[in-house]
């Protein structure tokens, strides 16, 4: 699971060679088709600029890609697990259906066993996989300027109220709250660690979070209340810039971010976040160390709270803060992501010093 992916050019060469040594360790998402494959897929090779590489099928699904019907990457990842393939087949046959535990039971499976199996193979449960696929379809439809009813249908919801409620649980706001003339605009950014939601005005980036972070709905609501112009769908220049910088970051080419940031927080929180911006890639600090260097040695817990309140993931590197004993702790995007980000930056620093 913690396999350190090589750079994109190396993986693209492996894709063109149909290199089976990456089997189960790397997957490619093709942006021109919306499909993800194993690197050994027999299909015609896509263009390099249309490829995004991921470490697991779950990351591909979170980024909005569908499984290839030729190389069947989900089936390969599940191996011989007898309960996984029937459920994958059922999801493929009814992608817009609102699956529930009752459906799993009706197919003769125990929901808790299925939950563990899907988590083990894909990093997400069967129900999460189905929900992610449906809601992503709805988000994409809304972003294209289509009405809510079209997004509801694309997401497979029979009632408008159910779609609005599910969408609001995902991002914190119902679809009708997004305005066409809004100053702030939201868009998805696909990364090897899962989809991120970015919100920018024409001049600065206001929010950048992994789409599955539990605090995202609350952060979206707070941002909307603070901005009288509301939130809409779109990709202003700061979002485009941070997307390009994230691409270079995950490719190991550049570990610094130059996008202008809007830091929404108290004076103390902003002081902590600005400190985080000064921590070099490949280095870490502890909460107590930050408190000491800010001249507030008794404020360790306040530093930890400020770190957790950061709304601009990766670019404001709260992942570079560890517990006093060096252990991973306190990352809203998930400790597995924190570990992966630290590994990426350690590799980047080692290449610079080589």
Can you walk through the features of this model?
With 354 residues, this protein is of the alpha/beta class. It has three domains: 1-78, DNA Methylphosphotriester Repair Domain (3-Layer(aba) Sandwich), CATH 3.40.10.10; 79-171, Orthogonal Bundle (Arc Repressor Mutant, subunit A), CATH 1.10.10; 267-353, Arc Repressor Mutant, subunit A (Orthogonal Bundle), CATH 1.10.10.10. It is built from 15 helices and ten strands. It has a four-stranded mixed sheet with strand order 3-1-2-4. A four-stranded mixed sheet has the order 7-6-5-8, with helices on both faces. A two-stranded parallel ribbon has the order 9-10. The radius of gyration is 21 Å and the shape is globular. The model has no long low-confidence stretch (mean pLDDT 82).
Shape: globular
Described by strand count, sense and barrel closure, the largest sheet is: 4 strands, mixed
User: What oligomeric arrangement do these chains adopt?
Assistant: single chain
Strand order of the largest sheet: 3-1-2-4
How far apart the termini lie comes to: 26 Å
CATH third-level topology of the largest domain: Arc Repressor Mutant, subunit A
If classified by CATH, what would the architecture of the largest domain be? Orthogonal Bundle
Radius of gyration equals 21 Å
Order of helices and strands: HEEEHEHHHHHHHEEEHEHHEHHEH
Secondary structure: number of strands? 10
Q: Name the structural class.
A: alpha/beta
Low-confidence stretches: none
Number of helices: 15
